[in-house]
Amino acid sequence: KINNKEAKAMAERKTYITKTRTEILEYLKQNWSVTVSASDIKKHLEKKEIKANTTTIYRYLDKLATDGTDM
User: Helix crossing, 54-67 with 19-30: angle to 10°?
Assistant: First the structure.
């Protein structure tokens, strides 16, 4: 089990800006007016020849929601 000190340290770690994350965010910005799924994002990434695991997409979407990222 993670203690408060470890949880705080994990939260303070810098987020890596990857090509995948950048592309996901851009896709969400371009499609802000419609509902998109993780599957839609995965298909978009595949068209751009970017490999991403579905779990990675869900984790990044969760991070955006948790951080309150405003698009």
Answer: 70
